[in-house]
Amino acid sequence: MHNGQIAGFARVKRELAMAIDAELYPCIEGSSDTEIFFFLALTFGLKQDPPAAVERAVGLIERVCSAHGIADPMRMSVAVSDGEAIWAFRYSSEGEPPSLYYSTRVETLHQQYPELPAFQHLSRDSRLIVSEPLDDLAGVWNEVPRSHYGLIRNGNDELQPFSPRAGVGTGI
What we know:
five-stranded antiparallel β-sheet
């Protein structure tokens, strides 16, 4: 999931695309900033270490955009999963990034929305990740702070600071 944008994307799209691993490049089907961002993260090891890969991808994007005179290039809320854990990132080069929330007290959803089967089937350990709270329910929604990411996995949730790794990339 990606909510946000790369500022001045049309001006840097080719350079960013050329930084994608040659073996991954044929898999690109579209031309959006979201897809380029995703393939950059894959290039930098998204499958092995999602936080480091996203930090490196954002660092490269900021470096390339800066070289093209594009200020404040990155605004994002991003979520990725390996099927067992979810990493949810919230970041902006400058200004307020897109919002990102996660749920904690599933019991509150069970109580306040008994008519919604989807909420009734959630286990106590379930978490919902949303760009906007579904409603103003006390104790349910927690905003991911700016320049942080959340790691949600079985029985363990944690927030960690997020900082792009400036100056790292594929040599471009």
